[in-house]
Amino acid sequence: MRGNFHVPFCRRVEVGDNLFDSIGIAIQSRNCTHWLGHLYLPFQKIKDRMEQRRMMRRGRRGRRINRKVPFCQRAHRQARFDNRRQCKIPPSIKANRNLEYRVLEVLSNIFPLLEVVIETIKARGDKAFSPVMVAQKWQLNRLSKDYMVQVKEGWETAQLRTLLGLKKQKTNKSDAVIETHAVDGIALACSEFVKYQITSLNSRAWVGEVNITPCPLTVIRRPPISRRQLHLMVPSIGNKRRKYGGTVTRHGLRKGDFVEATLGKKTVRGWVSGDTKTQVSVSDANWKRLGQFSKNKVRLIQRSIGLIATQQ
Distances in Å between the alpha carbon of 44 and those of 49, 134, 265? Predict the structure, then answer.
């Protein structure tokens, strides 16, 4: 991609649990700040779902085995491969990386991107290992195929942030405000225009200038859609399974579609989150249901792209 824009990803490490739940993105040119973003990562949601799936699978296997017969005659499935020698990326980490890459793909269709600046994490000395480091090189290699990638470390981001006069909120970093993660994104994006260089003999100074302008913050998250389940946790009476999850409704809409719904004098805009035989459920950006509307009173505005974006 060619242009004069820079998109950095600034990552966040939770102190204590060593988990990360949000990152900040900024698009900056020399003249102005074009876009700021706050991404809510699906790390914890995917982790909880994987634990639930594991528990359900063990329950099904336990009900299938007849423990009244000798062990050699039980219906144990033979091991098909050694699952302890694989180098797979954990699903929760991979979901985070895919969300970052997906957002960058959408931004590249709007802005002529020149370079992607990423802040990397390193564990030094006796510091504990952070899951932020998992799949870090894998993501860098994937981005390098489509973009020019520049890597910065945390101390470099802090120096740039101090030079530019940007204040960071460190009390509650999960808040969707500019002071949590977007300021790191701005600092990383400005690294191309403001550099620490040798000015004369044995002297160094910051060289360059950049103009940081006010810009609204866009909050992006994945729609929390439950996938289709054939086996529920609690078996139903009569062994009749009810429909649960899925992305397709019975009225030609998909979960995550942006729609406009009308009920009497009330008109709302939101995302499709569920359906009944004659109604469609519409929710806001936080996936709180705004109401259930007749299928004939719901108008499609935009098909789901797998992202929910709102401005603060």
Answer: 9, 15, 39
β pairing state of 217-221 and 266-275: unpaired
Distance CA 52, CA 92 (A): 13
* H/E run at residue 310: strand 308-311
Please state, in angstroms and rounded to a whole number, the distance separating the CA atoms of residues 143 and 100: 10
Single-letter code of the amino acid located at 141: N
Q: What is the residue-level pLDDT of the chain in tens, covering all 312 positions?
A: 444 566 665 543 332 233 468 889 999 999 999 999 999 999 989 999 999 888 888 887 887 888 889 988 887 777 777 766 677 888 999 999 999 999 999 999 999 888 899 988 877 666 556 667 788 889 999 999 989 999 998 888 899 999 999 998 888 878 888 988 889 999 999 988 998 887 776 788 888 889 999 999 999 999 999 888 776 777 777 777 777 888 999 999 999 999 999 999 999 999 999 999 999 999 999 999 999 999 999 999 999 999 999 988
As a whole number of Å, the end-to-end CA separation of the chain is: 29
Which value, in Å, is the radius of gyration of the alpha carbons in the chain? 24
Cα separation, 157 vs 183, whole angstroms: 10
- Model pTM score: 0.84
Secondary structure tally for the chain: helices H, strands E = 5, 14
Crossing angle of the two packed helices 43-64 and 91-108, in degrees rounded to 10: 140
Please answer whether residues 53 and 245 qualify as being in contact, where contact means their C-beta atoms are separated by less than 8 angstroms: no
Enumerate residues 6+ apart whose C-beta is below 8 A from 143. Answer: 101, 104, 116, 118, 149
Q: How far apart are CA 273 and CA 176, in angstroms?
A: 23
Q: Any idea what the Cα angle at residue 19 is, between residues 13 and 20, rounded to 5°?
A: 60
